[in-house]
Amino acid sequence: MEGIVMKIFYGEYFNSPCGELSIVFDEKETLLHLDFPDQGERQDRLLLKRFGPYELVEKTSRDIKGHILAYLSGEFAALDRITCDLGGTEFQNRVWSALQTIPLGKTCSYLELARQLGNPKAVRAVARANALNPISLIYPCHRVIGSDGSLTGYAGGLKRKEWLLHHEGAL
């Protein structure tokens, strides 16, 4: 319907040990997007693609911010208390779900992830799905590395990826 604008909520940007974060959620405080504002217009592009025209309304989140900060302070299970809605295609959702099977403190390669999904030739598609991951801490695309063990691609930047992997004990 023309003229309908999706109303979604955002908490204030907040500082964390790995940089400034932004959260977007619905009226039930289901997390829709988590991003690093210093990475340009990524959040706006992904929200527009997912929802079409939308209106961001400022609202304080009672729990999401606290759970994220608890995780970043070492209480890793805190992220399990956040309800998420990622949107995405069937393939993207399969990739994002597979990310959650990578244990804390471990990494896997894009190729390993593609094999886990039953299609070792889908390495580039897996990498693209990772790049479009809207909730990167809870669906831990930072745990996916190159086949040679190198840190490659992360929407939050490689320094942030390295920080997260150190924080989780993977490096």
Tell me what you see in this structure.
This protein has 171 residues and is an alpha/beta fold. It folds into two domains: 6-81, Double Stranded RNA Binding Domain (2-Layer Sandwich); 90-167, Arc Repressor Mutant, subunit A (Orthogonal Bundle). It is 32% helix and 13% strand. It contains six helices and six strands; from the N terminus they run βββαβααβααβα. It has helices spanning 42-51, 64-72, 90-99, 110-116, 123-131, 158-167, and strands at residues 6-10, 22-25, 31-35, 54-58, 108-109, 144-145. A four-stranded mixed sheet has the order 3-2-1-4, with helices on one face. β2 and β3 (31-35) form a beta hairpin. α4 crosses α5 (123-131). The longest helix is centred in the first third of the chain and has 10 residues, at 42-51. The relative contact order is 0.16.
List keywords for this structure.
4-stranded mixed beta sheet, two-stranded parallel sheet, 2 domains, alpha/beta, about 170 residues, MethylDNA_cys_MeTrfase_DNA-bd, Arc Repressor Mutant, subunit A, Double Stranded RNA Binding Domain, 6 helices
